[in-house]
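INPUT
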Amino acid sequence: MDLLVQIKDSITVQEAVDFVQSPSCGGVAVFIGTVRNETRGKSVQKLYFECYTPMALSEMEKIARHIQQEMGIQRIAILHVSGEKLPGETVVVIAAAAPHRGAAFTACQYAIDTLKETVPIWKKEYFEDGEVWVAAHP
Amino acid sequence: MDLLVQIKDSITVQEAVDFVQSPSCGGVAVFIGTVRNETRGKSVQKLYFECYTPMALSEMEKIARHIQQEMGIQRIAILHVSGEKLPGETVVVIAAAAPHRGAAFTACQYAIDTLKETVPIWKKEYFEDGEVWVAAHP
Amino acid sequence: MKVLLFGIAKDIAGAPVIQVDTPVTQVAGLREYLYGRYPRLRELRSCMIAVNKVYAADGDALQPGDEIAVIPPVSGG
Amino acid sequence: MKVLLFGIAKDIAGAPVIQVDTPVTQVAGLREYLYGRYPRLRELRSCMIAVNKVYAADGDALQPGDEIAVIPPVSGG
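OUTPUT
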């Protein structure tokens, strides 16, 4: 197994890096997404991530396989949290290892861009004066 | 201080990520370089990194400042090892945090590309049958 | 036929699973049924249907036993 | 005038620091001196001179007390 896709309560950068690193790959590119403390000028108290977990894992695996088959990547990890998260906490980690670092960067950016478009995970932002499902309305 | 440049015996991904992460930055891009167990088909026993440390730190800081001033990056860390390293060990970590993830990836790739061209650090590869300073000759 | 709902679609329906009693054989028919029952779904930026954990097109057929889900605009990452 | 050497340049000179006794007032003159004393430096892919921790051009002047270093092709990262 040279790909890892997981959804769980808590994720770390290290577990993603440990999975993809191997003595035969010189370069690893990583993307880490964290909860911001404000959005559009409003202070964020917390986030809540709801996941359609079996389909989300299936879509994450599609992204990972595409990257391995089309983008010169040997090992890739895509980790996402579910549940409540506070500002500063890590919500997504993507790590890609490749002999050529350019391919690793391209793959990592493709993975996060595609994840945000296709993976059935929903983020609710909690403000002092209410809550909203992100991006639901035009 | 919103930039960190260091040369030391041992570096971790986590210390670079911890430095750049902040509740106001949603995205962090990271590059991790490790010792490969072979190069041009020959098995590598170990590497040795020699640094002209004060100038190397100065060149690393130039890269970091350029990225902050020209590339929309708020916080950046560039860490490099010196001394002996075995296959699998981490030799360079670059982390860049930005409100926009595209900028973080671009900055990270610029940093590693430029580091490899301008920072006075030299790598010697040890093979079973000898040793060689990398890239010294045409 | 059972339909799973997530995110804002779950809030609009007031439940994570609903029962569809009218016979529907195509994704397009299910979509019309849902829009009729929950008009606020029309206000969303998008509203996809997944069948057996795969995004479905309006022309796709629905079989008894399919796992059907309403996918409002995703916002992970 | 003292000159620091690193990497393969240090190996070629056989020392991490050498003393230059001829008076040289420009980077170009130092380079010619070094090539004369260590011809194998000419075989390198490049051979830069740094003055006070900054890459110098051949036309740059050298002052007493400058920190001068020979920079063979770098290979960090």
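end of record. The two ends of chain B are 40 Å apart (CA to CA).
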